[in-house]
Amino acid sequence: MRIVTWNINGIRTFRGGIKKALDSLDADIICVQETKVTRDLLDERTAVVDGYNSYYSFSRGRSGYSGVATYCKDSATPFAAEEGLTGLLTNHEGAVGCYGDQADFCSEELQLLDNEGRAVITQHRLMCQDKEKMVTVINVYCPRADPEKPERKQFKLQFYKLLQCRAEAILKNGSHVIILGDINTSHQAIDHCDPSDIEDFNENPGRKWLNGFLLGVRQEEERNEDKPDEESDVTSADPSHGGKFVDTFRYFHPTRANAFTCWSTMTGARQTNYGTRIDYIFADYQLANECFISADIMPEVEGSDHCPVWGQLNCSLLPSSKPPPLCTRYLPEFAGKQQKLSHFFVKVQQKSSQPEQRDALPASQEEDERRENLNPFGAGNTSGKKRLLTLTSDSNIPKVKKTKTSSKPQGSLLSFFKPKLTNVIPSTEAPARQCEKTLDEVASSQNSQKASREDVSSFVSSEPEDTMPVFDSPQLCPSGTTEEIEKPTKTKPLTPLPSVGHSAAKKGASSVFWKSVLRGPPPPPSCKVHGEPCVLRTVKKEGPNMGKQFFVCARPQGHASNPDARCNFFMWVDKGK
């Protein structure tokens, strides 16, 4: 029997490939945490996987938050399954039971502890050494103690207390117990990349709870410290340390360092293995001593900020003939008894996302109707326009408010930033009325020259379309006024300016202009140790520096002794620059 736990940081990232991901782990029971999916967002391909039966716990208060799921191969089908630790979410037969003494918890507190979808329990039958045994698998995603929210620290400790109460009650009832998942606390200093102060490190409340929950292990006196970890003997339990459960990884690898299961993706710490070990497989000591044959981590498996952890038992599973009622295949939306509301929106969206189908006509339409749609404004077709309007009104194409169109050519955006024209040869892209207005102002300042309206009109009408008049000084534009002007002595044809986007010269001028206007941010500074360009970061933590930007070394975070890791360069961004 092989069992795996993995915080996947969102199960929808496996959409379409969940079965491939499960098969690659090659385990009988696969427990995943932080699914980040609520029941209304769970799709059938993820919930009902061929060859597996699955059991989910969803967050009731927040969407896209928390959540756990247990996938069992059909050959490992449990005979009981339950959501949560308190029993308040159990309303069906096939529950695990054994809730222990919950007198220390009020009813409201119990409800809140199970409200975030943090636990799924399955119960299985094993055949170990010709003896049938029962094992209960508790898949948990323990809360994180947010430093900014003191109430979450207490919530985390209460969850630990409830988990221990339930596990010990099941163990007392005669079943072996395996607790696995994201515990969100590194137990010992060897499980942390940088335990700064060892005294404060051990004073952490979560570590204190682990010290009391786990059965201490001691190293054999004859054990050779120089042996590789794989060749060493298994450690034995130390009854002087309380607890009833064993950390199976440390049971087989008590001195292995740098064995981490979680890394920060913000700092790229996985590249330098600068992480923590917070994902575990705990088992009661008897089961670990008699049935577990190995346990290890899988840091080579990517896809999340955590890596999988696995354990191997020398037992064979005895599957149940029928999954318990909690199985997702029995949910009404997946059993064919009820459709999700989201299904209706998906169908509408798929229909509207295929505009090419609007042109397709039903097979029953006649050939002339097909031609009519292909050429609705063809010669002799009087009903084409009307039909096209009818089709448009019946389709799902959104109506757009009509705007007045102008026959004048549209000028480029660059023309608005050019200086005002003072000569009488306006650009072919400038409107004629603007030219006339400008020249009228010039003409009004020159009161000594006048021209008749008739002369001006005849002059304008005789001018070719691709030429514009060039006047001698004083310069006047024929604007239909009654002032007299001098006759033009010559005309000069104008060459139209090339449009933006069609001329390399125009593109170059536009690029130079915009670069002069929008200079962009200054180049980042280089860190002092590596001499490499830094990266820009923003403070997102609430406080006086919220929103401020700073530069740090671009290399991934790592231990100070690692030359390939990030150096300690730091510089605030000067807003004045």
Give an overview in words.
The chain has 577 residues and is α+β, with helices and mostly antiparallel strands. The chain is 24% helix and 18% strand. It has 14 helices and 22 strands. The protein has helices at residues 18-25, 44-47, 107-113, 150-172, 198-202, 205-213, 248-252, 285-290, 341-352, 367-374, 384-394, 432-445, 453-462, 504-517; strands at 2-7, 29-33, 52-57, 68-73, 80-83, 119-128, 131-141, 176-182, 217-218, 236-237, 245-247, 262-263, 275-276, 279-284, 292-297, 309-313, 316-318, 467-470, 490-493, 535-538, 549-552, 570-572. Strands 5, 6, 7, 8, 11, 14 and 17 form a seven-stranded mixed beta sheet that branches. Strands 3-4-2-1-16-15 form a six-stranded mixed beta sheet. Strands 20-21-22 form a three-stranded antiparallel beta sheet, with no helix packed on it. The radius of gyration is 38 Å and the shape is globular. The protein starts with a strand and ends in a 5-residue tail after the last strand.
Salient structural properties:
577 residues; alpha+beta; seven-stranded mixed beta sheet; six-stranded mixed beta sheet; 14 helices; globular
Oligomeric form of this entry?
A: single chain
What does the main sheet amount to? 7 strands, mixed
Gyration radius, in Å: 38 Å
Q: What is the number of beta strands?
A: 22
Q: Using the alpha-carbon principal axes, give the shape.
A: globular
Give the termini distance in whole angstroms. Answer: 63 Å
Mean pLDDT: 77
Residue fraction in strands:
15-25%
Structural class: alpha+beta
Unreliable parts: 219-228, 348-366, 368-373, 378-395, 427-432, 447-489
The percentage helix is 10-25%
Q: What's the tally of helices?
A: 14
